[in-house]
């Protein structure tokens, strides 16, 4: 279930793969993902198809939370979720939370969880990412992340 052009679907998810000639973007269909490894496998496939090392999955769910999953080559994925308690409520959010391998738990309702440095080299440092978690609507946060990372046009083309 991806949102794309149908905003009645609860989430939007897109994969961005960095290549020598720029970013490749595709909408991610995660409806059949049941295990955290399904999400990782999707990113590894995108990395192979793009011949790139860096792949990002950006997710926003019902304007409640956003998430970033980053895969660099063969390393384990790095994950950031803007609101762990909101993400627990859904299947996709649960999968992303399961990918947070360091065992971090949210300190209180609405707290982010995961690696806030995940986008530091792409223009969204730790402090800014945490700020977006606190104050931004998930759609706006994803748009800012894409703009800073240099793939805003690709995001816009997916959103239509």
Describe this entry's structure for a reader.
InterPro entries: tRNA_Adeno_NH3ase_assoc_put. This is Putative tRNA adenosine deaminase-associated protein. It is a single chain. The chain has helices spanning 36-50, 84-87, 91-99, 126-135, 138-149, 152-159, and strands at residues 11-19, 22-27, 54-61, 65-72, 78-81, 113-114. The protein has 160 residues and is of the alpha+beta class. It has one domain (11-159). A hairpin with a 2-residue loop joins strand 1 (11-19) and strand 2 (22-27). Helix 5 (138-149) packs across helix 6.
Q: How would you summarize this macromolecular structure in one to three sentences?
A:
The longest helix is centred in the N-terminal third of the chain and has 15 residues, at 36-50. With 160 residues, this protein is of the alpha+beta class.
Morphology call: globular
As laid out across the biggest beta sheet, the strand order is 2-1-3-4-5-6
**Helicity range of the residues?**
25-40%
Give the termini distance in whole angstroms: 17 Å
Mean pLDDT: 86
Count of discrete structural domains: 1
Topology order in helix (H) and strand (E) letters: EEHEEEHHEHHH
Strands, total number:
6
Query: What can be said about the biggest beta sheet?
Result: 6 strands, antiparallel
Rg measurement, Å: 14 Å
What structural category arises from helix and sheet content? alpha+beta
Strand content: 15-25%
Number of helices: 6
């Amino acid at each position: 279930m991806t949102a794309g052009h149908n905003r009645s679907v609860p989430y939007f998810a897109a994969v961005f793969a960095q290549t020598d000639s720029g970013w490749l973007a595709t909408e991610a269909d995660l409806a059949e993902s049941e295990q955290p490894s399904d999400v990782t496998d999707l990113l590894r496939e995108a990395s192979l198809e793009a011949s790139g090392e860096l792949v990002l999955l950006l997710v926003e769910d019902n304007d409640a939370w956003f998430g970033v999953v980053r895969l660099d080559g063969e390393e384990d994925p790095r994950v950031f979720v803007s609101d762990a308690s909101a993400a627990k409520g859904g299947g996709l959010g649960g999968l992303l939370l399961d990918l947070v391998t360091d065992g971090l738990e949210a300190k209180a309702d609405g707290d982010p969880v995961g690696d806030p440095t995940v986008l530091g080299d792409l223009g969204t440092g730790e402090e800014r990412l945490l700020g977006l978690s606190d104050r931004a609507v998930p759609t706006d946060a994803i748009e800012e992340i894409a703009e800073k990372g240099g793939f805003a046009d690709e995001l816009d083309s997916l959103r239509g």
